[in-house]
C-alpha cells in the first residue's frame, strides 16, 4: 500500500482530475495544448495555503517528472514554495528545482536566497541539503555563491556537511572549470579531514577535479590507509582505486628483483616465488631491464607499500562486489607475486553473485589468468559451465578454462569441452571449438587428439559447428601441413556443402596454401569456385582470387584460363577491394612487357612460408588497463580514464608521507581497526575480550579472557546505563570512570580467585595505571575542546583505544604495573650486563629502593625493565628443581634490528630461559632496545604478527618513550608450537615500522625438568627405536672433561642435568615447552675424545635438530 | 562542451580473415601522426557517424597484399567533469521506460535505443550484455525481477561499482515495498524518487544503508498515510539519521521492541554438476546466514559455531568484526535492525559434499520415427536421515520436442510448449517408493534427431539440516539487560544442481 495511492483513495474526487496523467501518454509537447488546464489546477493547489494540497500537487508533479514528462511551465508556481515549512514539500520542490533550474535560470535565481539562508541553519541536515541543492543548480551565474558556500561548508562543524561540500566540488568544477585552483585548495583542506565520512567523498572529488595532483595525497596517505576499513563501501572503492595509482608512482615494483633479501626477516614476503609462469618471466625481463640499479640493490618494500597491502586485505571479505574487485586489482597491480594469490578465492566467491557481477568478474579473471595462471588453477572447477548460464558468461568461463589449461589438467578440460560441444547454444559451441583450437596450439601433446576431434565435428549436422571447426582446423593444419593432407582433401570436399563465408574462405586459403599436397583437387576446387564466383561473399571472393593466383604460379598449365576468368570477373566486381586485388594480382603474376621488377618475385611473395598463427587470448595484454575499470572491460579507453603509471625506476622520497603533527600518526594507527571504533559504542566489559592491535596473536589469551569478560558482562548490566550515544559518552566521562572502576573491582574479584595471590597487588596498580590513562586523555580532550566536535569524537576514540590497549595487553601489563607499585628498583639501564646476570641469579638486590626517581626518566621505561626483573622473581617459585648448573652465564643474544636499518633503533633479543609466567607454554624472549639516534623514540610496540598456524605471541607492553641514547629491555612470550619457525611481526615506533622476526634455536624450545636416574632410565626405555637418535662424535680438545661437556650442552639447549652414577656419562632432561614431550640427552664419553651422543625424544624433528646443535657445540 | 575532438583510426591487419591482427596502425588527428603498435587488439566497435573520413583510411590499407584488415574509428571527447552515474531508466519486460531519474543534466530517452537494439539481438533478456558502449555514453544494465535497471555513464567508472549500486537500489525497493515490480514502483513513484534522490548525489552514492534511508524517508504503511493526510504530517524525516554520522551506519538509534528476538537461518545451497553416470563432476556448498534481529537498544551479539573450520571463504555484512573472526572464528557484531544477511560462506569441494539424491535417467531420441523416450527415477542418497522435500525436476527440452506424453508415479508434470520446458513437481521423496517419470516424447515431423540430451535441473529442500554439517553452538548477547528469544533454523536447498545426460 503506498502513500500515494492511499492518498488518492482518500481524496477521491479532487485527485481524480490528475489521475489520467498517470494513465495515458500525451504526445510530446502535448502539455502546451490540452494538458495546460490540468496544470492550472496544479498551480492552484501550489498557491493554496494548505500544506496538504501543496504536497499533493508536488507529488503529482514529481510523478510526472519520473515518467519523463515536461512540467517546466510550472516552474514559477513551484519555485515560490521553496521556503515552505513542510519538509516534504520542500524536498519535492528541491527535486523539481534541480531538474529544471538549468532551463529556467532567471527564475531559479529567485530561490537562491532561500538556500543561502539554509546554509546558516542550526540543523546540519538543512545546511547539508541546502548546499546539495544549491550546488546542483547548474546556473553559471551563481558560481561565486557556490564557491563561497563550499568553502564555508568545508570547515563546518558537522562532518555530514563537510561530506556534502566534498560532493559539491565536482559539481562546481563541471559548471566552471576556471575554479579549479580554488577548488584544489578546498580539496586539500578536506583531504586532511580525519573522519571516515568525508574521506570517500573527498577522494572522489580529487579524482574528478585534479587526479594529476598526486602530491596532495602524500601527507594523507597513511591516514587514508588506516581509515580505509571504516569508510563506507563506495568510498572504499574510490580510495582503493586512487591509492593503486598513487602506489604505482611512489613505490618500487615488488617483483623487479627475484633474489632473496639479505635480511632474513623479510624472507616470508618473498620466499615463495615458485608459481611463476614462463610467460611471466619474459614479461618481467622486459620490464626489469629498465631499472638496472635494481640488480645491484636488493629490493626492500617500503613500509607504506606494505601498509596499503595489509590494510586492504580484510576488505576482500566485503559483501560489496565492487570493493572486492577494487582490492583484487590493487593486489594484482601492486603486490609481490607470492601474495597475489589471496585474491583468487574472493573473486571465485563473486561468481555466485548476480550474473552482471559474474560477467565483470570473469572478464577480469580472464585477464589475470593469463598472467598468473597458478592463482586460479585450484579453482578450475568453479569455472565449469552450466547449461543455464547466460551465453556471455559461458563464453567468458570458456576463456578462463582455456587460459588455465596446461599439460596436467588438459585431459579434464577437454572432457568438459566435449560435453559443451553438445550444447544447444550454438554460439557457445562455436566458442568451445575455438577454445579447443587454442588448447591444441598451446599444448603440443594434445594437438593430434584435438585435431581428430575437430575433424569428427566436420560431419556434424549443424553448419555453424562445421564452419567453426573448419576455421580452427585450418589454423592447426598450418602448424604441420605435411602430415595432414588427407584432412585437407576432406575439407576440400566440404566446399560443396558449407555455406558460411568464413569457413569457405578458410578452406580456399588452405587449399591455395598447400596446393602441392593436393595437386589434383586444387584445380577442381578453383573450377567450382569460378563457377559460383559472382554469388560469393566478399571474403570468399578475395580468397578465390588468392587461390587462383597461387595455382597459376604453381600449376599454370591447368589453371591459366581459370585464373584469367576469375580475374576478369573480379575486375568488374562491385567491391573496390576486390577490383583492387584483381588488378594488383594480375600485374604481379601475369608477366607482360610492362610489368615491373616485382613480378619476378611473385612466387616468393605468394608462396612464402607463412608463420603459423599464434592463437592468443583476446584478453592478452589487457592488463595495461587498470583491472576492474570500465576501460578494461571494453578494452578501449573510456573518457576520464586515468592511466595506470608504470613503476618508477627509483622510488621517490618516502619521507614526503611523514606527517609532522605528533599526535596524528599514533592516533590513526591506533584506532585503525573497525572493531575498535565500534567497540566504543559498546559497554566497557567488551574491551577486555576485544582483540588488540594484532588480531590473531591475541587469540591465546582472549580465549581465557572471554570467559571472564562475559561473566563480568552480565555483571555490568546492572550498573551499565543501557546504550550510550556518542555525544553522551563524552559528557558522562566521569561516570564512566566510576563504572570502569566498578567493573574492575568485579573483574578483580573474579581474577583473584583464579590467580595466585601475589597478583592481586598488581590489580590495584593496573587500576591506577588505567586512571592515569584516563586522565591523560582527558587533558588532551580539554585542550581540543575548542575545536570542532568531530575532532573531539576522534579524540575520545583514541583515548578509548588507549585504555583498551592497556586492558587488552592484559597480563603483561599487569606484571609491569605490579612492578611499578613496588618500590622502583635502581635504574637498570646503567648497567645492562650486570642486570642480566643478576636477574638470572635471582638477586633480590633488584628490589632495593631506587636511588632517585629522576634517574629514571619515564615510568614505562622503568617498569619495563622491572617487568623483566619480575620474571626473575617468578622463576624463583617455578624452578625449585635442583638445576645443578645454572643455565648460563652468557645467554646468547641475537640481533633483531640493526641500528642502521632501524634508523638508530637497535634491538637484540635473547632467550632468557625463564618460564614465561602468563603462559607456561610460551618461551620467554627478552629484548633489549637501544636508541642510538639523536631523537627520542616513542610508542614502541609490536603489530601485525605473522605466525605459522598454532603459534601464539604475547606482546611486550608498549614502551611509551625511549629517550635518545637510552636502553630498555622488555619481555615477550612466544609459543613456537615446538617448531623452529620464525615469528614475524612489525616493530612500530611513532614514525616507522620495521619488519622483524624471532627464530628460536631448537634448544630454546624446551625447559629443564628434574628426573632421578631411575626415572631417566625408565623414560629412556620407553623412547627407543624411532624415537632414539645416536651419533658418534669426537669431542673438541677443550671439551673433554665432564664440566665443559655439561656447560656446552646446557648452553646449546635449555636442559637440566640428571644425576648419574657413572662419570663416563652425562645425562640431561627437559620437556618441550608446548607439548611437554620429554627430551633426554645422553653423552657417553670414551677414550681419546670419542663419545656417543644419544637423544631420545618422541618429536623426531626436535630430536634431529637437537642432535645437530649439540654435536656442533661439543665438537667445536 | 567539446573542447577538442580527437579522431583516431585504428586498422588491424591480418594474414587471413580469421587470424588475429599481426599489425595495426593507429592514426590520430587526421592522419598526421602515424604510429605503429604491435598487438593492439581489435576493437569491436565502429562509430559510423564519424565515417566521413572512413573510406580514405580504408583505401589506404586495403591494397596491401595479403593483409586483411578491420578498421575502427573512435572518437575521444574529453569530458570536463565526470560523474559516476548520470541517469537511471527503469524499463519493464516489454521494453517500456516507466521511470527516469537524472542526477545531472537530462539525457534523452533515446539513449535507451542502443539497449533495445541489443535486447532485440539477444533472444533471452539474460543474454543482454550488462555493459554497452554507445557513441557518447556507456550503458550499464542489470536485470532483476523482470525489470531492467539501466544506468547511463559518461566516463570511466568501475563497472561493478555501478552494478552493485543498481542491485542495491533494487534491494531497497524490495525492502521498502515488499516486492520490486513495475506496479509497485509506479504506485509509490514519489517515494521511489525521493529514495533515488537520497541514494545518489551527483552520481555518487550517498546513503545506501536501508536503516539510514528508513529514517529519512519512512516506508509507507497504511496507518501512517492515513495519519499524514489528516494531520498534514510527512513521510520525510527532518533530522539527520543518527546512523549517517555514527560508526555503525547500519543501525538506527532508539530501537525498541516489546518482544526481543533474534533469529538466524542457516541456508545452504548445493551447487553441483553430476555427469551421466551419476558421479560428481563438481560440487560445492554456498551458505548464507540470514538474520532477523529485533532487539531493543544497542545489543552486541556473538555467534559462535561448533565447527567454524569448515568454512572455506566468507564475506560479511559490514557489521561483523573481521579481526575477531580472524582470531577466534566467532561472529561478533552489533546487528542492524530487522532483516539482513549476516554472512555468506563457501564450503569448497575439497571437503566432500554430500549429494542428497541420485538420478537414474535415460532420454533417447530415435532416428526412426518422430519420437523419443524418457525415463527418470530419483532416489535418496546422502540425506542425513532427513526427508527430501519440494523435489522438482526441470528440463529444457530441445526445440524439436513437440509434446510429451508421460506418466509420473508421484507428483505431476507440465510441459510448456512455447518455452520447451518440462517441469516435474514431485514433492516429498519417499525412499520406499521411488518416484518415476516415464513415457514418450514426440518430435516435430521431419526435424532431425536432437543431438544432445537436455540436462536436468533439480530443486529440493531438506529442512533442519545444513548439509555441510555447520552448526551454531551459541549466541551471546552483551550490552543489554533483557533476555532475548533466540532461534536458529537450518535449511538445505539445491542451488545450481545439474545432472548432465
TrEMBL record, chain B:
GO biological process, one term: intracellular protein transport
Limits of the MHD domain: 259-500
Keyword list, A-Z: Cytoplasmic vesicle, Golgi apparatus, Membrane, Protein transport, Transport
Subcellular localization(s) per the UniProt record: Golgi apparatus; Cytoplasmic vesicle membrane
Coiled-coil annotated spans: none
InterPro entries on file: Adaptor_comp_med_subunit, AP2_Mu_C_sf, AP_mu_sigma_su, Clathrin_mu, Clathrin_mu_CS, Longin-like_dom_sf, MHD
Membrane topology classification: Peripheral membrane protein
Entry GO terms, CC: clathrin adaptor complex; cytoplasmic vesicle membrane; Golgi apparatus
Gene3D superfamilies cross-referenced by the UniProt entry: 3.30.450.60, Mu homology domain, subdomain B (2.60.40.1170)
Statement: the UniProt record of this protein carries the keyword Transport: yes
CDD domains, per database record: AP3_Mu_N
Protein's UniProt keywords contain Manganese: no
A Pfam family the protein falls into: Adap_comp_sub
Family classification: Belongs to the adaptor complexes medium subunit family.
Free-text function comment from the UniProt entry: Part of the AP-3 complex, an adaptor-related complex which is not clathrin-associated. The complex is associated with the Golgi region as well as more peripheral structures. It facilitates the budding of vesicles from the Golgi membrane and may be directly involved in trafficking to lysosomes.
Name this polypeptide is given: AP-3 complex subunit mu-1
Native source organism of the sequence: Sander lucioperca
Amino acid at each position: 500500500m503506498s502513500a500515494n495511492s492511499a492518498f488518492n483513495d482518500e481524496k477521491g474526487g479532487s485527485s481524480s482530475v490528475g489521475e489520467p496523467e498517470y494513465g495515458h501518454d500525451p504526445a510530446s509537447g502535448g502539455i502546451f495544448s490540452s494538458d495546460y488546464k490540468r496544470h492550472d489546477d496544479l498551480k492552484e493547489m501550489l498557491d493554496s495555503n494548505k500544506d496538504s494540497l501543496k504536497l499533493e500537487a508536488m507529488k503529482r508533479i514529481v510523478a510526472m517528472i519520473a515518467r519523463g514528462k515536461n512540467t517546466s511551465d510550472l516552474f514559477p508556481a513551484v519555485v515560490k514554495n521553496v521556503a515552505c515549512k513542510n519538509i516534504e514539500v520542500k524536498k519535492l520542490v528541491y527535486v523539481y528545482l534541480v531538474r529544471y533550474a538549468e532551463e529556467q535560470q532567471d527564475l531559479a535565481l529567485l530561490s537562491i536566497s532561500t538556500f543561502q539562508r539554509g546554509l546558516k541553519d542550526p540543523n546540519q541536515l538543512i545546511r547539508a541539503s541546502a548546499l546539495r541543492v544549491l550546488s546542483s543548480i547548474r546556473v553559471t551565474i551563481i558560481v561565486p555563491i557556490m564557491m563561497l558556500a563550499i568553502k564555508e561548508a568545508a570547515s563546518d562543524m558537522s562532518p555530514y556537511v563537510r561530506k556534502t561540500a566534498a560532493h559539491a566540488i565536482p559539481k562546481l568544477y563541471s559548471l566552471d572549470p576556471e575554479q579549479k585552483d580554488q577548488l584544489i585548495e578546498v580539496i586539500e583542506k578536506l583531504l586532511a579531514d580525519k573522519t571516515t565520512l568525508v574521506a570517500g567523498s573527498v577522494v572522489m572529488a580529487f579524482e574528478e577535479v585534479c587526479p594529476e595532483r598526486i602530491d596532495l595525497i602524500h601527507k594523507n596517505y597513511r591516514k587514508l590507509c588506516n581509515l580505509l576499513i571504516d569508510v563506507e563501501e563506495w568510498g572504499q572503492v574510490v580510495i582503493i582505486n586512487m591509492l593503486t595509482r598513487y602506489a604505482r608512482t611512489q613505490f618500487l615494483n615488488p617483483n623487479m628483483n627475484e633474489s632473496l633479501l639479505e635480511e632474513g626477516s623479510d624472507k616470508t614476503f618473498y620466499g615463495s616465488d615458485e608459481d611463476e609462469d614462463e610467460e611471466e618471466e619474459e614479461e618481467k625481463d622486459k620490464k626489469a631491464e629498465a631499472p638496472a640499479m635494481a640488480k645491484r640493490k636488493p629490493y626492500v618494500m617500503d613500509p607504506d607499500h606494505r601498509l596499503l597491502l595489509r590494510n586492504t586485505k580484510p576488505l576482500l571479505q566485503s559483501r560489496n562486489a565492487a570493493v572486492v574487485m577494487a582490492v583484487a586489482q590493487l593486489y594484482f597491480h601492486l603486490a609481490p607475486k607470492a601474495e597475489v594469490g589471496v585474491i583468487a578465492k574472493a573473486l571465485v566467491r563473486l561468481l555466485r553473485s548476480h550474473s552482471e557481477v559474474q560477467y565483470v568478474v570473469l572478464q577480469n579473471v580472464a585477464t589475470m589468468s593469463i598472467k598468473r595462471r597458478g592463482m586460479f588453477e585450484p579453482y578450475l572447477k568453479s569455472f565449469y559451465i552450466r547449461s543455464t548460464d547466460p551465453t556471455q558468461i559461458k563464453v567468458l568461463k570458456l576463456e578462463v578454462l582455456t587460459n588455465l589449461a596446461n599439460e596436467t589438467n588438459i585431459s579434464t578440460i577437454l572432457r568438459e569441452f566435449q560435453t559443451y560441444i553438445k550444447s544447444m547454444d550454438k554460439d557457445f559451441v562455436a566458442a568451445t571449438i575455438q577454445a579447443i583450437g587454442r588448447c591444441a596450439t598451446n599444448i603440443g601433446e594434445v594437438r593430434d587428439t584435438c585435431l581428430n576431434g575437430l575433424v569428427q565435428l566436420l560431419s556434424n549436422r549443424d553448419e555453424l559447428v562445421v564452419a567453426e571447426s573448419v576455421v580452427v582446423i585450418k589454423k592447426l593444419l598450418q602448424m604441420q601441413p605435411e602430415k595432414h593432407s588427407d584432412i585437407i582433401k576432406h575439407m576440400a570436399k566440404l566446399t560443396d556443402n558449407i555455406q558460411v563465408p568464413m569457413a569457405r574462405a578458410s578452406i580456399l586459403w588452405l587449399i591455395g596454401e598447400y596446393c602441392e599436397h593436393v595437386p589434383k583437387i586444387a584445380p577442381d576446387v578453383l573450377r567450382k569456385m569460378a563457377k559460383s564466383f559472382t554469388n560469393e561473399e566478399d571474403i570468399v571472393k578475395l580468397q578465390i582470387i588468392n587461390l587462383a593466383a597461387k595455382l597459376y604460379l604453381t600449376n599454370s598449365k591447368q589453371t591459366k584460363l581459370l585464373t584469367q576468368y576469375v580475374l576478369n570477373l573480379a575486375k568488374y566486381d562491385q567491391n573496390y577491394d576486390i577490383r583492387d586485388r584483381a588488378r594488383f594480382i594480375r600485374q604481379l603474376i601475369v608477366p607482360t612487357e610492362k610489368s615491373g621488377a616485382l613480378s619476378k618475385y611473385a612466387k616468393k611473395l605468394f608462396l612464402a612460408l607463412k608463420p603459423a598463427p599464434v592463437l592468443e587470448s583476446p584478453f592478452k595484454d589487457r592488463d595495461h588497463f587498470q583491472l576492474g575499470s570500465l576501460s578494461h572491460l571494453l578494452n578501449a579507453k573510456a573518457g576520464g580514464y586515468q592511466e595506470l603509471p608504470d613503476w618508477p625506476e627509483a622510488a621517490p622520497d618516502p619521507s614526503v608521507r611523514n606527517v609532522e603533527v605528533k599526535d596524528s600518526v599514533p592516533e590513526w594507527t591506533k584506532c585503525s581497526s573497525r572493531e575498535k571504533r565500534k567497540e566504543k559504542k559498546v559497554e566497557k566489559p567488551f574491551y577486555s575480550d576485544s582483540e588488540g592491535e594484532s588480531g590473531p596473536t591475541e587469540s591465546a589469551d582472549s580465549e581465557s579472557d572471554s570467559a571472564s569478560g562475559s561473566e563480568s558482562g552480565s555483571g555490568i548490566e546492572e550498573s551499565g546505563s543501557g546504550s550510550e550515544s556518542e555525544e553522551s559518552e563524552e559528557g558522562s566521562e566521569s561516570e564512566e570512570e566510576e563504572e570502569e572502576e566498578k567493573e574492575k573491582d568485579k573483574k578483580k574479584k573474579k581474577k583473584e580467585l583464579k590467580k595466585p595471590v601475589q597478583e592481586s597487588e598488581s590489580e590495584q596498580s593496573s587500576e591506577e595505571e588505567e586512571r592515569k590513562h584516563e586522565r591523560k586523555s582527558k587533558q588532551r580532550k580539554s585542550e581540543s575542546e575548542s575545536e570542532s566536535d568531530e575532532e573531539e569524537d576522534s579524540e575520545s576514540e583514541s583515548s578509548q583505544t588507549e585504555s583498551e590497549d592497556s586492558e587488552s595487553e592484559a597480563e603483561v601489563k599487569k606484571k609491569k604495573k605490579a612492578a611499578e607499585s613496588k618500590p622502583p628498583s635502581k635504574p637498570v639501564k646503567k648497567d645492562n650486563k650486570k642486570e642480566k646476570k643478576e636477574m638470572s641469579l635471582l638477586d633480590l638486590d633488584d628490589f632495593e629502593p631506587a636511588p632517585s626517581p629522576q634517574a629514571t626518566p619515564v615510568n614505562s621505561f622503568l617498569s619495563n625493565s622491572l617487568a623483566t626483573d619480575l620474571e626473575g622473581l617468578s622463576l624463583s617459585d617455578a624452578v625449585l628443581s635442583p638445576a645443578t648448573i645454572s643455565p648460563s652465564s652468557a645467554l646468547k643474544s641475537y640481533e633483531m634490528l640493526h641500528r642502521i636499518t632501524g634508523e638508530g633503533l637497535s634491538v637484540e633479543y635473547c632467550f632468557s630461559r625463564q618460564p614465561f609466567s602468563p603462559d607456561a607454554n610460551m618461551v620467554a624472549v627478552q629484548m633489549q632496545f637501544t636508541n642510538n639516534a639523536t631523537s627520542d623514540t616513542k610508542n614502541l610496540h609490536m603489530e601485525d604478527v605473522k605466525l605459522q598456524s598454532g603459534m601464539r605471541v604475547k606482546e611486550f607492553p608498549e614502551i611509551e618513550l625511549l629517550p635518545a641514547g637510552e636502553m630498555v629491555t622488555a619481555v615477550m612470550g612466544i609459543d613456537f608450537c615446538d617448531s623452529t619457525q620464525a615469528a614475524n611481526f612489525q616493530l612500530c615506533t611513532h614514525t616507522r615500522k620495521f619488519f622483524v622476526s624471532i627464530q628460536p634455536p631448537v634448544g630454546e624450545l624446551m625447559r629443564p625438568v628434574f628426573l632421578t636416574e631411575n626415572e631417566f632410565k625408565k623414560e629412556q626405555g620407553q623412547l627407543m627405536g624411532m624415537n632414539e637418535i645416536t651419533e658418534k662424535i669426537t669431542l673438541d680438545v677443550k671439551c673433554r672433561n665432564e664440566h665443559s661437556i655439561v656447560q656446552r650442552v646446557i648452553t646449546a639447549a635449555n636442559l637440566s642435568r640428571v644425576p648419574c652414577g657413572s662419570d663416563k656419562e652425562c645425562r640431561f632432561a627437559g620437556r618441550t615447552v608446548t607439548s611437554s614431550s620429554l627430551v633426554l640427552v645422553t653423552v657417553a664419553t670414551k677414550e681419546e675424545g670419542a663419545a656417543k651422543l644419544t637423544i631420545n625424544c618422541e618429536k623426531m624433528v626436535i630430536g634431529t635438530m637437537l642432535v645437530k646443535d649439540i654435536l656442533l657445540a661439543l665438537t667445536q | 562542451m567539446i573542447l577538442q575532438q580527437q579522431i583516431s583510426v585504428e586498422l588491424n591487419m591480418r594474414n587471413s580473415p580469421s587470424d588475429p591482427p599481426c599489425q595495426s596502425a593507429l592514426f590520430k588527428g587526421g592522419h598526421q601522426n602515424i604510429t605503429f603498435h604491435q598487438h593492439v587488439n581489435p576493437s569491436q566497435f565502429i562509430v559510423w557517424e564519424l565515417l566521413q573520413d572512413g573510406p580514405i583510411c580504408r583505401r589506404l590499407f586495403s591494397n596491401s597484399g595479403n593483409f586483411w584488415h578491420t578498421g575502427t574509428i573512435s572518437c575521444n571527447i574529453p569530458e570536463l567533469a565526470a560523474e559516476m552515474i548520470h541517469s537511471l531508466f527503469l524499463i519493464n519486460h516489454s521494453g517500456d521506460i516507466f521511470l527516469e531519474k537524472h542526477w545531472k543534466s537530462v539525457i534523452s530517452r533515446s539513449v535507451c535505443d542502443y539497449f533495445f537494439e541489443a535486447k532485440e539481438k539477444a533472444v533471452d533478456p539474460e543474454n543482454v550484455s550488462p555493459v554497452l558502449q554507445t557513441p557518447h555514453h556507456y550503458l550499464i544494465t542489470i536485470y532483476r525481477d523482470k525489470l531492467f535497471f539501466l544506468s547511463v555513464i559518461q566516463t570511466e567508472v568501475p563497472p561493478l561499482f555501478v552494478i552493485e549500486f543498481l542491485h542495491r537500489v533494487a534491494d531497497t525497493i524490495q525492502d521498502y515495498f515488499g516486492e520490486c515490480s513495475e506496479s509497485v514502483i509506479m504506485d509509490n513513484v514519489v517515494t521511489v524518487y525521493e529514495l533515488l534522490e537520497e541514494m545518489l548525489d551527483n552520481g555518487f552514492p550517498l546513503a545506501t544503508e536501508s536503516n539510514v534511508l528508513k529514517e529519512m524517508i519512512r516506508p509507507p504503511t497504511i496507518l501512517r498515510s492515513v495519519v499524514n493526510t489528516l494531520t498534514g504530517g510527512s513521510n520525510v524525516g527532518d533530522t539527520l539519521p543518527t546512523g549517517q554520522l555514527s560508526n555503525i551506519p547500519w543501525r538506527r538509534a532508539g530501537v525498541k521492541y516489546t518482544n526481543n528476538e533474534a533469529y538466524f537461518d542457516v541456508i545452504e545451497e548445493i551447487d553441483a554438476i553430476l555427469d551421466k553416470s551419476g558421479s560428481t563432476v563438481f560440487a560445492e556448498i554456498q551458505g548464507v546466514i540470514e538474520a532477523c534481529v529485533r532487539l531493543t537498544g544497542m545489543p552486541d551479539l556473538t555467534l559462535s559455531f561448533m565447527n567454524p573450520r569448515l568454512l572455506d571463504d566468507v564475506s560479511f555484512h559490514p557489521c561483523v568484526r573481521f579481526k575477531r573472526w580472524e582470531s577466534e572464528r566467532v561472529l561478533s557484531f552489533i546487528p542492524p535492525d530487522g532483516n539482513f544477511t549476516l554472512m555468506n560462506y563457501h564450503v569448497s569441494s575439497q571437503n566432500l559434499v554430500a549429494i542428497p539424491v541420485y538420478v537414474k535417467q535415460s532420454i533417447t531420441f530415435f532416428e526412426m520415427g518422430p519420437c523419443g523416450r524418457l525415463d527418470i527415477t530419483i532416489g535418496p542418497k546422502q540425506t542425513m536421515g532427513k526427508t527430501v522435500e519440494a523435489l522438482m525436476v526441470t528440463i529444457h527440452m530441445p526445440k524439436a520436442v513437440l509434446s510429451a506424453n508421460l506418466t509420473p508415479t508421484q507428483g505431476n508434470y507440465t510441459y510448456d510448449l512455447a518455452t520447451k520446458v518440462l517441469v516435474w513437481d514431485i514433492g516429498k521423496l519417499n525412499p520406499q517408493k521411488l518416484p518415476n517419470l516415464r513415457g514418450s516424447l514426440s518430435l516435430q515431423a521431419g526435424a532431425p534427431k536432437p543431438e544432445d540430451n537436455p540436462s536436468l535441473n533439480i530443486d529440493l529442500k531438506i529442512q533442519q539440516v545444513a548439509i555441510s554439517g555447520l552448526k551454531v553452538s551459541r549466541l551471546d548477547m552483551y550490552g543489554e539487560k533483557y533476555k532475548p528469544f533466540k532461534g536458529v533454523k537450518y535449511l538445505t536447498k539445491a542451488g545450481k544442481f545439474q545432472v548432465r545426460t
